[in-house]
User: What shape does this take?
Amino acid sequence: MMCFSVISYLQDKKMIRRNKTKEIRIGNRVIGGTNPILVQSMTNTYTGNIGKTMRQIRKLIRADCEIVRVAVPDIESCKAIALFKKKVHIPIIADIHFDYRLAVRAIEEGADKIRINPGNIGKKANIKKIVVKAKNAGIPLRIGVNAGSLEKELCRKYGGPVPDALVESTLRNVEIVESFGFHDIVISIKSSSVLDTIDATIKVARVMDYPIHLGITESGPIASGTIKSAAGISVLLHRGIGDTIRVSLTGDPVSEVVVGYGILQSLNLRVHGPDIISCPTCGRMEVDIAPIVKKVEQRTSNLCENIKIAIMGCIVNGPGEARIADIGIACGKGAAILFKKGKIVKKVSEKEMLKTFLDEIDTLVEKSPRKQRKDNKKSRK
Ligand code: SF4
Assistant: This one.
């Protein structure tokens, strides 16, 4: 039988081997290669409403969003980009559909990257105008193929936006952009079908080394969208595919960032705060742990450090989980055993449990050489 410390060691060290993709600079960030997988989101305000969009971008930055995309449906939205660029430090991506002139103008206004769906930009000559402008500005283009806006002729050929149609669209559009001598490319292939997205993205990743942005498009409201996104994005990440991610949810985009980091952290690909391990509770539960979990979650939400905190309802799995966490409690009748770094520290009564546990977490974090709070980090931005 394997001892707990060995299991813990293996859990900590397990890493996903990532595909080696080309490095691409987006503003002050670099993606691809061995660079961290970045978390993106997209504002859902009208971009031309500068005040509202700026407030949302700031909220996203506070949540640690690393790249933000804004929809650019008109000239007012293009102009807004120049103002955002003066006030925020994270890269701003302009999302363009249909009109190449908006892409050209967005580049002039300082966009750090342009996302186009060449399928709806139309003539090659118009795509060329965007490519030439991006090349001169030294910014990348994302070729974002989406099942909802696939070229009609490919839909007819394949009988719908199936994975092979998405792959052909991607390869064809990359070829068009490359034919203008442009290789500063990021790719995304998205469908609201998890399986189609996985299938198409794997096929494209086999034949190209451009960085890939992952997401399940139009995945739905917060709960079901989180599930779909986690399922699809995780399968691809586990195969080593993906250089940036966006979790598309209907609702506050801050949730997209929270879920995005959650996915990356659960696969050991990024560290973004504590990992709370708590049991689902059942009829054996000796102490109601739900309020304790809630309080611990609130108290530790601003920590950057990836400490493992276990809160367990009874002795069945409690001592085992609490022992392999950095800090944990395993509840028994009216009391709990507190563990730190695999060792029993003390027994506490149910009454003292919450306060003692929170104090011990604080002490653990204070002693850590890596301690960093997100609010400190924010003040530097
Ligand atoms: S640890 Fe105990 S209370 Fe929690 S789910 Fe398992 S058996 Fe139930």
Observations:
- The domain at 274-378 is CATH 3.30.413.10 (Sulfite Reductase Hemoprotein; domain 1).
